[in-house]
Design goal:
The structure holds 2 protein chains of 2 kinds. Chain A is mostly helical. Helices cover 74% and strands 0% of the residues of chain A. Chain A has helices spanning 2-17, 22-44, 58-101, 104-109, 115-147, 156-178, 183-204, 216-226, 247-274. The longest helix of chain A has 44 residues, at 58-101. Chain B has 10 helices and 14 strands. In chain B, β9 and β10 form a beta hairpin. In chain B, α4 (114-127) crosses α5. Chain B is elongated and about 75 Å long. The two termini of chain B are 41 Å apart. The relative contact order of chain B is 0.14. The chains are: A mainly alpha, B alpha/beta.
Chain lengths: 280, 308
């Protein structure tokens, strides 16, 4: 156990040393730009807007923006969560190749450690980085919510849990792929995996015309069994006044995602154990 | 009799290259044995297959065929690696650690207890002459200091077998001497050293055995003591060397050359006085007495491995 912690700590230091925290700066800039109209509307909206019957009055616009604040913030949290998943994929896909390219892996693997331990250390470190990213986003949004006089309900935890599990899944996929592919290809394939649940949903809903040539629906149905549910946005629940929530329906995809992430990580471990460390 | 530290039988490893993925032999049917408690040199030109062999021993590469053993057990396992200290040709530490932190990390990975590490890290830094750099980031070290750090991490957990890939490359003469001294000290402690090197002078100075490899195959293997710089033989030139003289010196006669009645006789240091006493009593003239420098390691290298 202590060796796993040691490897995780080392991998996390490697992530920080690779200046990954710049990603947080980029994310805060992006989300701030998105929230700017909501934040600055009262002071930037001209006094004479809507006067003379041309469009809604200033008061009406401000009132509408005020009504939209909870949804805007929930949307911001959702976008931040998607960015966290993207960061996880980005950092996860490069974690192993960075070590191989820097050739630090040779001395580490000459020590009596199992390769799965090294891989697990990297996974845990990427996970911690993604979780910290999410925590930062949550704090940022709570601060903005407080400024805008919006409050999140306890159901925000559902959205956060969804995001955490999704980062677990996609960082696991990115890391598993990086045991055999380059960082860029692993990242690209992991992103593809992240889009698959949506594509599969569309394919599955495609009309089953029973036509000889129609394979879209059956293919979607088959892929539905293979592709993990992935990420779904539940932050809307956090700003609804009295949402109706089917907990078992929410829990099931979480559990399935966890199982899938363990399967992908297991496959990654097997591939990495068999892989040769060639340094050219 | 103790198990050999390293036992390699018919190791073959190919790489695939080019569009047609043609096989290129890195190592072909290589067999060698390294006895415990010895310093064995693994010598060969660039691309001969030295690093491939070492990486196969560490389990970093999967051999196509062959059997590799470390202390009688299969090579490449965690148990085998626990008994090995490895220094790569160019040591690459994590750039975000200080020298002392890097050593602690590698020590912890090797399973060295914290209290032992607290003593061992400063001791190794002192031994390698890099104590003052203990708090410096590894990214700011010179090549020589990085090499010393590489050796320090290999020694830290006191392994039974040291595999050192070019440990003296990039070192100044003082650093080279220090590293060779440490290698001798490790042998004195009963450790086995498998040393890959291009520097034949280093090999002659510290090694007991040498294995020369060329194009993935063992080209030559012998004891270092059989080479000129290490042997203690003397050559005595004798004038008037007749058949009667020859008969009176046998059966202990070691004749190096004979041209007419001029012979060069060989003897070791302990037998020199006795041979000279016999020669003085015989009707011969002693032309010269000098140390006999047999073929050097470099001669053997050029003969078996060199491209000339």
């Amino acid at each position: 156990m202590s060796r796993l912690i040691l490897l995780s700590r080392n991998a996390f230091r490697g992530i920080l040393a690779a200046r990954s925290m710049y990603l947080w700066v980029v994310a805060i800039l992006l989300i701030t730009v998105r929230l700017l109209p909501t934040l600055l509307a009262p002071s930037l909206l001209p006094e004479n807007v809507g006067r003379g019957g041309r469009g809604p009055s200033r008061e009406m616009i401000l009132e509408r923006l005020k009504e939209q604040r909870p949804a805007t913030l929930a949307g911001g949290l959702n976008e931040w969560s998607v960015l966290c998943i993207a960061f996880g994929i980005l950092v996860g896909a490069g974690a192993l190749s960075r070590e191989v390219n820097a050739r630090t892996i040779i001395t580490v693997l000459s020590r009596p450690i199992a390769r799965w331990e090294l891989l697990f250390g990297k996974w845990a470190a990427v996970k911690v980085f993604a979780a910290l990213s999410l925590l930062l986003g949550l704090m940022f949004h709570l601060a903005v919510a407080s400024y805008l006089d919006v409050s999140f309900t306890r159901f925000v935890a559902l959205g956060l849990a969804q995001t955490l599990v999704a980062t677990l899944l996609y960082t696991g996929i990115a890391l598993a792929l990086s045991t055999v592919f380059s960082a860029a290809l692993s990242g690209a394939l992991a992103v593809l995996f992240a889009f698959l649940p949506g594509v599969v949903g569309v394919m599955k809903d495609y009309p089953d015309t029973a036509s000889y040539y129609n394979i879209v629906h059956p293919l979607g149905a088959v892929l539905d069994y293979l592709v993990p549910p992935g990420y779904s946005n539940l932050y809307g629940l956090a700003v609804e006044v009295s949402p109706t929530i089917d907990y078992s329906a929410q829990l099931q995809p979480l559990l399935i995602n966890i199982v899938y992430s363990l399967i992908f990580f297991g496959i990654g471990c097997v591939l990495f154990t068999r892989r040769e460390i060639k340094l050219g | 009799m103790s198990q050999p530290a390293i036992e390699i039988e018919n190791l073959t490893k190919t790489y695939r290259s080019g569009l047609r993925r043609n096989p290129v032999f890195a190592v072909r049917n290589l067999s060698l044995t390294v006895r415990q408690g010895t310093i064995s040199a693994f010598v060969g030109p660039n691309g001969a297959g030295k690093t491939t062999t070492i990486h196969s021993l560490l389990g970093l590469l999967n051999p196509d065929s062959g059997r590799l053993k470390v202390f009688g057990g299969p090579a490449g396992t965690a148990a085998a690696r626990a008994r090995i200290g490895y220094q790569s040709e160019i040591f690459h530490p994590y750039p975000f650690y200080t020298v002392a932190q890097a050593l602690r990390y590698y020590g912890q990975l090797a399973g060295v207890p914290a209290d032992t590490l607290a003593r061992a890290v400063p001791a190794q830094l002192e031994r390698l002459g890099i104590s003052e750099a203990g708090n410096r980031r590894t990214s700011g070290l010179s090549k020589g200091m990085t090499q010393r750090l590489g050796l320090a991490q290999a020694l830290l957990h006191e392994p039974e077998l040291l595999i050192l890939d070019e440990p003296t490359s990039g070192l100044d003469p003082e650093g080279r001497r220090l590293v060779l001294e440490i290698i001798r000290e490790e042998k004195a402690k009963g450790k086995t050293v498998f040393l890959s090197s291009h520097i034949l002078a280093d090999v002659e100075r510290v090694c007991d055995e040498v294995v020369m490899i060329r194009r993935g195959e063992v080209a030559f293997a012998d004891q270092i003591s059989s080479f000129g710089a290490a042997n203690q033989d003397w050559a005595i030139e004798v004038l008037g060397f007749t058949s009667a003289v020859r008969e009176s010196l046998e059966p202990d006669l070691r004749l190096l050359s004979l041209e007419g009645e001029v012979a060069v006789l060989l003897c070791d240091s302990s037998g020199k006085r006795e041979l000279l006493r016999k020669l003085v009593e015989l009707p011969v003239e002693i032309g010269a007495i000098q140390r006999h420098r047999g073929s050097s390691l470099e001669d053997a290298y050029m003969k078996h491995v060199g491209r000339a």
